[in-house]
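Moderator note: this is an archived Q&A kept for reference. The question asked for a predicted structure of one protein chain; the sequence and the answer are reproduced below.
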Amino acid sequence: MCKFCEKHGAAGKWYLNSKNYLKETYEEANSLEYLEDLWGNLERLYTRKVYKLFNARGVSRHHKTPILGKLFRWYANRGFLKDGRKKKLNMDATQGHFGQVITLEEAKEILTQTAPVVAKAMCPCKYFTRGVKEASCLGFTPLAEVLPKLPRFIPENGIEILDDEKAEAFLDQMSEKGRINTIWCGPVPAVAALCSCDVSSCGALGLLRFGINPCWKGHYVAVEDLDLCVQCGNCSDRCQFNALSYIPGIGPKINPELCYGCGNCAQVCEEHAIQLGDRESLAQTQGDY
């Protein structure tokens, strides 16, 4: 169990804790104001200055410098886990907007058993990074209220409230496309959304190249069993984290230290030659989130 789960997971994973989806939690964390500001100003993320110091372009330019780069990485990584109930957060720095990679099965459990409201909406990251309009974000109770105030983010057919059957069908569709499921606080500890995105489009996962980590690895690690592999190659292009190398005639080779535990490779392996194991059970990945 990760440290964040110990604090917010109620003896389990934080994103499966039903308390984090309650109206009382959203109100205590001031989620409506937070999300309206965050989603309503996404187009300004590259120009807004954090504490009037430097903006996203500055991060790109200075992230490798010994002093400024180290300072910003420390400040950013520290801020994502800040608790929105304790004091007003710096929303220019998206403090409290923490996420984690989850499996398809976990995502389905959240949508059908934990989240009381599921609203499908346009993905702001995909729109601003690639100009693609796709409804691949699922917002929960606070976002369902905030999204109508942000018409430029709403698909042409409007926000769609999904029942359990439609929610599962949506996730299966995203899985076929090889999407990564991530769950997000807005702010900590209120759970605001579940996204089915890819590394090239996700604004948060894209920050990993700067040493900034708003989205932690999942609780699982993919493990290969070459004795079961039939060299079909279905897994060869499923990993977006460069953790899997496919060797023709041999099969997949997985680097557990790079694996985020999304389960995409295991999902397409009909022979069960790739399975997910507990991150804490492997010495190489224990405590590595």
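Archived answer notes: The first strand starts at residue 99 and ends at 102.
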